[in-house]
Amino acid sequence: GELVAIKEFLNPSAKVSLSRSTLVKMKQLRDMQHNNVNTILGACIQKDRIRLVTLYCTKGSLQDVLENDNIKLDNSFKLSIATDIARGLHYIHGSPILFHGNLKSSNVVIDSRWVCKLTDFGGFHVKFVSANGEAGEYAEYSKLLWTAPEHLRGNKLGSVKGDIYSYGMILQEIILRGLPFCTTNYTPKGLIQIIDMVIARVDPPFRPQIPDGECSDDMLRLMQKCWRHDPLSRPTTQVIQKKLVAMNNGRSINIMDNMLKMMEKYANDLEDLVADRTRELNEEKKKTDELLYRMLPRIVAEQLKKGQTVTAESFEQVTIFFSDIVGFTALAASSTPLQVVSLLNDLYTCFDNVADMYDVYKVETIGDAYMVVSGLPIRNGNRHAGEVATFALDLLHCVRNFQIPHIPGKQLQLRIGLHSGPCVAGVVGLKMPRYCLFGDTVNYASRMESSGLGISLR
């Protein structure tokens, strides 16, 4: 099956059989075949109404497309639409129908390939009344915005030159993406005044205003020629097509070519967008990795990222460092919690900066206790003891120069314990996994620290 569109007209004569002239007209409409004219497949005649059957165009009318802000139309696309309409109008003007007679954006439909097709031509809107027409004075006057002045005064049937005037109004719609005279904020009463001013023989004639920069000078001049008050001075469809080709630098205008260009541009923009998003993703991944490497050794973190199980590992020789602050309990009791947090943050930031200069790994901090190790997770031969001892001496020097923010005159005293020996290290837990050390070496280092003196190391 094939989707079709049906438009109903009331049959004022209330006769099932139509006159010979009407049947001839319908035969002429049926015989019209052009890429930019919507094909009439047939008609269904009943006593009180006539139904015209045409091909269904999936994109709706040009008016629908222009009013949809989600559909982006560049200048090439607008030029293609204008060219399609001019081609269809040129075909109609050379056919037995002679003219469209009801040209406006709602009577230009767009198929799935974005080809514009003229519809509702042949004078049926004059001889028969639309069965689903809009009601109200405003709706009736709004239909006249596309009508040429000479037809507003009398002949409502239409003419070739009347179509050219209507085409100029559609060009304004394409450029501004609004109804004719859309730059004039008119009410229903104001709409009547607009129609009266269009009819009036004033110089210059009353026409839509195009803001500067909305279109090229060539397009503006073409619209103004189509709007001329004297019908004989308006251009023909052949001249219009030549002007449009000239605006495209002499190249033939094809809406499918423009669609392909738009798709290519969209693909390129999409590639750029994907590249930008990928770069942002990589930057965020780096930040995440850096945070993870601060919590776990790099080699362990890489294993966890790959989904591998991290097994505990034995190290024959490492050196473990413990330190705490002498009199920290009394200091904390005389300080607020925020002051304690600020103190420890400043102190451990200082310790971390020193640790970055040595081959040591910070294991954890618990309260005022600070623990590091050298020789794991990456073995460093016999250098582990020297690395930790030199690190400890540097910390003692830093503490001597450290000022407690809320007690400037008080001197911190750091107690340090070291021990070298074997150790087992592994990741403990699934939620917030920790890299922990086990063995007698850990216990010995802790006891060396707890039994030591302030501003010294054992």
Give a brief description.
The chain has 458 residues and is of the alpha+beta class.
Written account of the structure:
The protein is α+β, with helices and mostly antiparallel strands. The chain has three domains: 60-253, Transferase(Phosphotransferase) domain 1 (Transferase(Phosphotransferase), domain 1); 255-295; 312-457, Alpha-Beta Plaits. It is 45% helix and 16% strand. It has helices spanning 20-31, 62-67, 75-93, 124-127, 137-142, 149-153, 160-176, 188-199, 217-226, 237-247, 255-295, 298-305, 328-333, 337-355, 384-400, 440-450, and strands spanning 4-10, 40-45, 49-55, 108-110, 116-118, 129-130, 313-325, 361-366, 369-374, 414-428, 434-438, 456-457. Strands 7, 8, 9, 10, 11 and 12 form a six-stranded mixed β-sheet that branches. Strands 2-3-1-6 form a four-stranded antiparallel β-sheet. A hairpin with a 2-residue loop joins strand 8 (361-366) and strand 9 (369-374). Helix 3 runs antiparallel to helix 7, helix 3 (75-93) runs antiparallel to helix 10 (237-247) and helix 14 (337-355) packs across helix 15 (384-400). It starts with a strand and ends with a strand. The relative contact order is 0.08.
Spell out the blueprint of helices and strands.
Layout: E1 4-10, H1 20-31, E2 40-45, E3 49-55, H2 62-67, H3 75-93, E4 108-110, E5 116-118, H4 124-127, E6 129-130, H5 137-142, H6 149-153, H7 160-176, H8 188-199, H9 217-226, H10 237-247, H11 255-295, H12 298-305, E7 313-325, H13 328-333, H14 337-355, E8 361-366, E9 369-374, H15 384-400, E10 414-428, E11 434-438, H16 440-450, E12 456-457
Parallel strand pairs: 10-12
Antiparallel strand pairs: 1-3, 1-6, 2-3, 4-5, 7-9, 7-10, 8-9, 10-11
